[in-house]
Amino acid sequence: MARISVTQVKSTIGTKPIHRKTMKALGLAGIGRKTNLPDTRDVRGMLANVSHLITVEAVEELA
Question: What is the mean pLDDT of the chain?
């Protein structure tokens, strides 16, 4: 399964509570934090919700 790397680039201070909860569910808790997530429809929807706070990169799979 493909994976994506997500990095938080903006603070959640002053954002809506649903955005803060989404960031926590993604495993991001501060600027500069990174996490690798599976590339699924559910995760893509969460990323679209907080796209103004993050950057997304594709991760190459090693065989």
Answer: 95
Helix pair angle (17-26, 41-49), 10° resolution: 140
d(CA 1, CA 55): 20
pLDDT tens by residue, 29-46: 999 999 999 999 999 999
**Count of structural domains, the chain:** 1
Question: What CATH number is given to the structural domain containing 9?
Answer: 3.30.1390.20
Specify whether the CB–CB gap between 3 and 39 falls below 8 A.
Answer: yes
**How does pLDDT run across 2-12, given as a tens digit for each residue?**
999 999 999 99
Q: CA-to-CA distance for 50 and 16, rounded, in angstroms? A: 10
